[in-house]
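#onboarding

Welcome to the new folks! Below is a worked example of what a typical request in this channel looks like: someone posts a single protein sequence, and someone else replies with the predicted structure as tokens. Don't worry about understanding the tokens yet, we'll cover that in week two.

Example request:
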Amino acid sequence: MKDLSVGIDIGTTGVKGVVVSSKGEIVATTSRKCDLISPKPGFAEEDPNVWHRNVLDILKEFSAFKDRISSIGISGMVPTLILIDSEGNPLGNSIQQNDSRAVKEIDYFKEVLDEEEFFRVTGNTINQQLIFPKFLWLKKNKPELVEKAKWIMGSYNYINFKLTDVPNLEKNWALESGLWKIDGGWYEDVLKVSGISENMLPRVYDPWEVIGYLKEDVSRAVGLPSGIPVIAGSADHIASALSTGLNKDGDLLLKFGGAGDVLYVSKTLKLSRKLFIDYHDIPGMYVPNGCMASSGSIVKWFANELTSLSYEELTNLARDIPPGSEGLIALPYFIGEKTPIFDPKARGVFVGLSTHHTKAHIFRAILESVAYGFRHHVEVLEEEGFKIKRVFMSNGGAKNELWREIVADVVGKDAIYILNNPGSSLGAAFIAGKAVGIFKDWEDIDLFTKERVLVSYDPEKKKIYDKFYEVYREIYENLKETFKKIHNILEG
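Example response:
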């Protein structure tokens, strides 16, 4: 009986897989590590070959359920840029969505494009996340790669291609690339000015569409039957929103991933220059959202580079530090920032350091800096007129109880944390199952969200954080010209 579906998520720090059943059971989970590659300030790359090997390893592990697997869905970071040659191989590393190298190219496009018209047509501002400034950077700095490129794809699109031999893009990759009109179709004016041929862009699919079937050589390599349907898949943050049960107007998700995402569900299309816009995986709904370029990746950097303590040890020490980390405040802009400030030149900062501060203070200040970033986004949403009705928390960082408490206290809202939730991989698996009929309705995602924890905020702690948050906002405003000077010095 084909009652299972597989979801795999291509994440910043790992590739995660899940097998789920039509009854709402998580049958199996697994993961493989991958690493962000940052050879220069502002660079954020990964090796697509590592993703591919990890996916094959995960599918091989899931071959124990081969007779029951009905479909496969992949989610991943958007809008990652991968150049692919005529043999189907990646030309070098991917350029990640949070990469901020294309500063000059962004400035160039702000000069040659009508920003108001661009925003009206695409729902995007001209910022570091878009594909075409990065493509222009590649043309200028690595022209030999561009000359060999046959296709442009993103993270999960590339994996889909390796599984099926079908070139593909998914709708939210297209929208977030800045090359797609929000009402559908490639934006020819931007393609022309950026030098991207439409022939390099594969067909765009909705998340739930079957793009192809598991090909013979892959099936032999992983021990699964050939012909398993593979869907277009989903942007990771949208799949994560779906997996936590965000299916009602007014739902908000705070996602503690390698990057930090803030996602709001709306039945109506409303654009904001301070936020991104995505289509929901559920037809007919939209997801105004923000993305902090660095979140969990800063925690990982600190643990790996500046201390030998485990996350658990650091958390236990940080719990004894009072709110506000005794005057130590961090800016989490370690590789620039996307929403809501859109400043690729911004950088990480610690303000207020004193000799009495310890590793525990610094660790807590990092957790608080991400919480301040979440609050900044919540304020933007409310200023834009979005009414927040339910708040959810998800992803790996949300497993840390202290971090959940800090975020609730800083934001000043109670939140729902879903226990045993695999995140984006679950969302991808659910969409795959929905595509082939093992799930009948989109509301069936609630089968996976029954185990919940209420995270209540402390009004007294919020009062303390209100004061530090005000300083947090001032720090960037006071330093943004300094960030520009540092960038110019490094650029020569």
